[in-house]
Amino acid sequence: MNFHTRKWIKPQDLNPNRSLFGGRLLEWIDEEAALYAIIQLENPRTVTKYISEIDFKASAREGDIIEIGLEPVKFGTASITLKCEVRNKMTRETIITIDKIVMVGLDEEGNAKAHGKTQIEYVKNRLEV
What we know:
The protein has a single domain, classed as Roll (Thiol Ester Dehydrase, Chain A). 19% of the residues lie in helices and 37% in strands. The protein is built from two helices and six strands; from the N terminus they run βαβββββα.
């Protein structure tokens, strides 16, 4: 699992229980998955198609730092499937795991667009001549 993004939990991220609001965390996960998929599919018209069961195992409090990790699972014709883990850097607990996030690349009309990808590409490999 690659953990590239960290978030610092601030007062505006809390629910009435003073712990991390689940909706805020899901917003961050969806955004990270979209950014990852857009870069991999090289298609800015990439959208979320599916997110599997979500199971909150722990939480975070104001001042905690969390990490969002994503890992590719497979490529479809027009999609990429990712799994996700979010962990609290302060308590070392896993906050949430999501086994399947499916992101789909679209064309200008909003239809699925084949991407021809079969494996993860890194920017350094795209720049080699």
